[in-house]
Design a protein that fits this description.
Number of strands: 0
Number of domains: 1
Radius of gyration: 20 Å
Number of helices: 2
Structural class: mainly alpha
Low-confidence stretches: none
Oligomer: single chain
Helix content: over 70%
Largest sheet: none
Length: 78
């Protein structure tokens, strides 16, 4: 019996993460389509915009959290 190498295991884990991410995105597109009564392309565009907004919020939160540990007068910008 062949024992999978670390490289193969890492590749399999990466593939699994990608498949799960794709499945999650497909579910989200379906939800947006039903909720907003739009087609898949419009739903995907709306989700991409939402992802940008979420990422921007996450970045501001990280910066604020890092700034709180220092004497920063602009700690709560954004």
């Amino acid at each position: 019996m062949n024992v999978p190498s670390n490289r193969h295991e890492a590749a399999a884990r990466h593939l699994l993460r990608q498949v799960r991410a794709r499945a999650t995105m497909c579910r989200a597109i379906g939800i947006v389509q039903v909720q907003r009564g739009c087609g898949p392309e419009e739903a995907r565009d709306q989700l991409e915009q939402l992802a940008c907004d979420v990422e921007a919020t996450r970045m501001v939160t990280l910066v604020n959290a890092a700034a709180e540990s220092r004497a920063d007068p602009d700690v709560h910008w954004g």
